[in-house]
Design brief:
This protein is an alpha/beta fold and 319 residues long. Helices cover 47% and strands 17% of the residues. The protein is built from eleven helices and nine strands. Strands 1, 2, 3, 4, 5, 6, 7, 8 and 9 form a nine-stranded mixed beta sheet that branches.
């Protein structure tokens, strides 16, 4: 097995994660040279717990707008005085699986141009709710060269710093945006067939799922605005699908129905789409895939409304 070198550090971010943070930090013991925990205004004793578990703690100035990207950058900055070769980015509600660093390092050795390696993120309690199960399915992405990673990944520290780290102002979608710039700089992102982390999404209510999906729509729209004109057309297709199914088509159905009663038949496109998706991925997934386009459209339209008013939206939180 590949030996864990002493140049792997970890940056963990969190707020009021409670016992989840304790589990997260304990799993990193003996696996990382240093662990930096960046806290964003916790009131549950997270800072004291992190220090007791040996982490270096950074408490963000919460008088400034908070984003996960800003928290990750703060952690990366702490490591700059004695930079590691690799940095493990991790959310505070995740537990790293034993053996993950060795598997990721083996992938870096196999793919010299790789700057990001990620593995399988699993939901800890997929049986707890339909929304947890959907999140677990969402994270099961194809193995091989990838366009992006999520919040948990092992990265080459120098490569991340060379492109300026994360964009502090993004409230969502900061990881794919970073991966885009890393790939533009000549790096590669790889998803490998190895267990990486257990994640506690804690999605127990429909409203949480809706807000999480609305946040995705916001990320799609902002990502397309930033990089949609480039050759990769970053998140242009995702934004267009959200706006078509969640906003444009409902308006068209309404107008057609007001013009002629037969126009309401246009709404049958939705059950037809459900049947098409159900054949591919099952009924539950199909229902939420169709329904989710309305939440995504709300997020995308919200982004553009704020942009036209010259405002920046705060976090769209679901926990």
């Amino acid at each position: 097995m590949t030996e864990i070198p002493d140049q792997i550090d970890a940056v963990v971010i969190g707020r009021n994660e409670g016992e989840r943070l304790v589990v997260c930090l304990r799993a990193l013991r003996g696996q990382m040279r240093r662990v930096v925990y960046v806290d964003s205004g916790s009131t549950d004793g997270s800072v004291a717990q992190a220090r007791a578990l040996g982490a270096e703690v950074v408490a963000l100035d919460m008088t400034r707008p908070f984003t996960a990207a800003r928290a990750r950058n703060a952690g990366l900055e702490v490591l700059a005085a004695d930079p590691p070769e690799f940095v493990q980015l991790l959310d505070g509600d995740c537990e790293m699986v034993p053996g993950w660093p060795a598997a990721a390092l083996a992938a870096f050795a196999e793919h010299p141009r790789a700057v990001v390696v990620c593995g399988r993120r699993r939901e800890r309690f997929p049986q707890a709710s339909v929304w947890n199960a959907l999140a677990d399915r969402e994270w099961d992405t194809p193995v091989g060269p990838a366009r992006a990673c999520g919040g948990d990944a092992l990265m080459r520290y120098a490569a991340v710093r060379a492109v300026g780290g994360y964009r502090d102002d993004l409230i969502a979608g900061e990881e794919p945006e970073l991966c885009l710039r890393l790939r533009q700089a000549g790096g590669e992102v790889w998803r490998i067939a190895a267990e990486m982390v257990l994640h506690d999404a804690a999605l127990t209510r429909f409203g949480q799922w809706w807000r999480r999906t609305r946040r995705a729509g916001h990320a799609f729209a902002e990502g397309a605005a930033l990089h949609g004109a480039g050759p990769e057309r970053h998140w242009v297709a995702e934004t267009r699908r959200a706006l078509f199914w969640g906003a444009g088509l409902p308006v068209l159905v309404l107008l057609a129905g007001l013009i002629h009663p037969a126009g309401w038949l246009l709404a049958l496109v939705y059950p037809a789409q459900f049947v098409r998706l159900a054949r591919r991925g099952g009924g539950t997934w199909a229902v939420y895939s169709v329904l989710g386009k309305f939440a995504e459209a709300q997020g995308a339209l919200g982004y553009w409304a704020d942009r036209l008013r010259g405002r920046r939206r705060g976090l769209i939180e679901y926990k």
